[in-house]
Amino acid sequence: MTSTPLDLPGWTHVYSGKVRDLYRPDRQAEGTTAPEGTMLVVASDRVSAFDHVLSPGIPGKGELLTTLSLWWFDTLDDVPNHLHASHAILGTGTDEARSLVPAEVAGRSMLVRALDMFPIECVVRGYITGSGWLEYQESGTVCGLPLPAGLSNGDRLPEPLFTPAFKADLGDHDENITFERAVELVGVEDAEALRALSLSIYARAAAIAESHGVILADTKFEFGRDAATGEIVLADEVLTSDSSRYWDAAAWNAGGTPAERMASFDKQIVRDWLAANWDKTGTPPDLPDEIVERTAARYRELLERVTTTV
């Protein structure tokens, strides 16, 4: 599935990731009113797995992810974030702010402030699975951090771990790194601040998710620095089903197998199907309609469960 950026009036496309597109104001366009330093982040319906963008996309995914991100930004409103001051949750900002968002991407875009982004992804793991489980089986560690013997896939860790990763270019694998390597990349003061922020946000979000019957197994945060103030700011998407692993708490408690325990609300359905039907060489096969529909339903269910008042 190729990524063809939209031609949005008043905006110039500057970057496409696996699932999101980034735009800056087009100062040459007549009537451009977006403030200096404003960016437009547009979430697409694209879905990626094993560092490939797949076809077809997941209908409505961009809007579902954006809505969940905005809900978390709003819930964690004491944590500085990159949302433009006039962009409020669920499109309830000022008329002026809404007018800056092209109709073609309304509901799946965020007006944000431009930041100097840190070159690491701030991963927090509260449970062991995925690449962490593979490393643990080989060495008893996760990103070089020693763990107790006898853990099983999907077990809760004694305490959440900060396990950063180096951001890879599009098409390459993100690289798990040690905290010491993170210090080399961003400096000791910023590395310690990013670790503390990530662990704090994860703890709060995990408790909120648990109150909704959902386990936040792990997640990935991205941060940038506000050039004007020097403040570290939470950016990109936050706590979505693309950047996090969410499991059903009842299934985790009752399940007898890893698959039953880790009943996922993210694109694990896609990963599992692809792993069983592709050898990771050449072009990935198209996703069957049934996989697309099941994945979309899980995205919708997570949004409803997490954002419903308990």
TrEMBL record:
Q: Give the UniProt keywords, A-Z.
A: ATP-binding, Ligase, Nucleotide-binding, Purine biosynthesis
Record-annotated SAICAR synthetase/ADE2 N-terminal domain positions: 14-279
What InterPro entries is this protein classified in? SAICAR_synt/ADE2_N, SAICAR_synth, SAICAR_synthetase_CS
* One Gene Ontology cellular component: cytoplasm
Tell me the leader sequence span: none
Which catalysed reactions does the entry list for this protein? 5-amino-1-(5-phospho-D-ribosyl)imidazole-4-carboxylate + L-aspartate + ATP = (2S)-2-[5-amino-1-(5-phospho-beta-D-ribosyl)imidazole-4-carboxamido]succinate + ADP + phosphate + 2 H(+)
Q: What Gene3D superfamilies has UniProt attached to this entry?
A: ATP-grasp fold, B domain, Phosphorylase Kinase, domain 1
Q: What is the official name of this protein in its record?
A: Phosphoribosylaminoimidazole-succinocarboxamide synthase
List the source organism: Labedella endophytica
Provide the gene name from the record: purC
